[in-house]
Amino acid sequence: MAELSAVELGEGPISIEVDGEFDLADEERAQELIDRALESSAALLIDLTTCSFMDSTGLRILLRTHMRAQTGGLRFAIAGSEPAVRRTLEITGLDESLPLYDDRTAALGALAVEPT
């Protein structure tokens, strides 16, 4: 189970921080945070810098969030990932379709805001 938190980055995006193992047990909380973020901000960052594991639930949430952001004209980026998570994204081919960035600074740059 991951520790999930939402952080408002000033006038910029909302960052959802994922720490630990992101799996089925986190689905409801993650979706709650994402729904609130997409309703209140034009930009969303999901920070996987300290996410050590992700199952298909996490992959589905990332893909669904990306599609919602595109449909709603919102900016969306995913920051960093541990090697095991990055490998899962590569194996599934999602590394080619999701807006993944090596670190938080690069993701925030893509969202056109200054890092904090």
What does this structure look like?
This protein has 116 residues and is of the alpha/beta class. The protein has one domain (2-110): Transcription Regulator spoIIAA (2-Layer Sandwich). Helix content is 41%, strand content 30%. It has 4 helices and 5 strands; from the N terminus they run E-E-H-E-H-E-H-E-H. The chain has helices at 27-40, 56-72, 83-92, 104-110; strands at residues 2-8, 14-22, 43-54, 75-79, 100-101. The protein has a 5-stranded mixed beta sheet with strand order 1-2-3-4-5. Helix 2 (56-72) links the parallel strand 3 and strand 4. Helix 1 (27-40) runs parallel beside helix 2. The model has no long low-confidence stretch (mean pLDDT 92).
The largest β sheet comes out as: 5 strands, mixed
| Name of the CATH homologous superfamily | STAS domain
Number of helices, counting only DSSP H or I runs of 4 residues or more: 4
SSE-based structural type: alpha/beta
Along the chain, the helix and strand elements come as EEHEHEHEH
Helix content: 40-55%
Main-sheet strand order equals: 1-2-3-4-5
- For the termini, the CA-CA separation is 27 Å
Task: State the assembly state of the protein chains.
Answer: single chain
